[in-house]
Design a protein that fits this description.
By secondary structure, the chain is an alpha/beta fold. Helices cover about 20% and strands about 35% of the residues. The strands form two sheets. A six-stranded mixed sheet has the order 4-3-2-5-6-7, with helices on both faces. Strands 1-9-8 form a three-stranded antiparallel sheet, with helices on one face. Bound molecules: 1-O-pyrophosphono-5-O-phosphono-alpha-D-ribofuranose (PRP) and 7-hydroxy-pyrazolo[4,3-D]pyrimidine.
Length: about 180
């Protein structure tokens, strides 16, 4: 285990089993619909890469980059698009793929924004749901794990751009962020 990690919350095997299950559910629900999966950079990139490989149906992949956090741990409430989709989603069956929904600000902004582009359908698939910090009402359609109110890293999730490479989801030791103004 990495020295900065206090405990492993979800190990690599458990994550992979859940991603397989989500892939199977999406394959059933979207059979014949050729959905577009929209991976929200950067955090969701590892989840999305694993998830598309668990689909047994044809699907397309596009990317958006959104900023709602600084380098710290709390939402700024300011959401902006850093990179937009390459193609129109009008008439497409769209699934937003996110690593985590926390305050919900990022996902609710994305839902509003993408809805206005007139997709045939629009759903959300998130690996982690942390409902304790929700600032807007939001229920993702597909959820991997509900997690407690702890700051987690790994499997794409970062603190100050570090720890994304860890194959598990872990809780950071407090000394890593203590003394850093959030
Ligand atoms: C993280 C995460 C979600 C968002 C969730 O992204 O990937 O997009 O925060 O938080 P919310 O529900 O409180 O809005 P971040 O802005 O840290 O960017 P990153 O994906 O590049 O790490
Ligand atoms: C964003 C985020 N990034 C990493 N770990 C968490 O627990 C997070 N919540 N919201």
């Amino acid at each position: 285990m990495h020295d900065d990690i206090a405990k492993v919350l979800i190990d690599a095997e458990t994550i992979q089993a859940k991603v397989r299950e989500l892939g199977e559910r999406l394959s059933r629900d979207y059979a014949g619909l050729n959905p577009v999966l929209i991976c929200i950079l950067k955090g969701a990139v590892i989840f999305a890469a694993d998830l598309v490989r668990q689909l047994s149906i044809p699907a397309k992949l596009d990317f958006m980059a959104i900023s709602s956090y600084g380098s710290g741990m709390r939402t700024s409430g300011v959401v902006r698009i850093l990179k937009d989709l390459d193609r129109s989603i009008e008439g497409e069956h769209v699934i937003i793929v996110e690593d985590i929904v926390d305050s919900g600000l990022t996902l609710s902004y994305l839902l509003e924004n993408l809805k206005s582009r007139q997709p045939a359908s629009l759903k959300t698939c998130v690996l982690l749901d942390k409902p304790a910090q929700r600032q807007v009402p939001l229920e993702p359609d597909y959820v991997g794990f509900d997690i407690p109110d702890e700051f987690v890293v790994g499997y794409g999730l970062d603190y100050a751009e570090n720890y994304r490479h860890l194959p598990y989801i872990g809780v950071l030791k407090p000394h890593v962020y203590e003394g850093v103004s959030q």
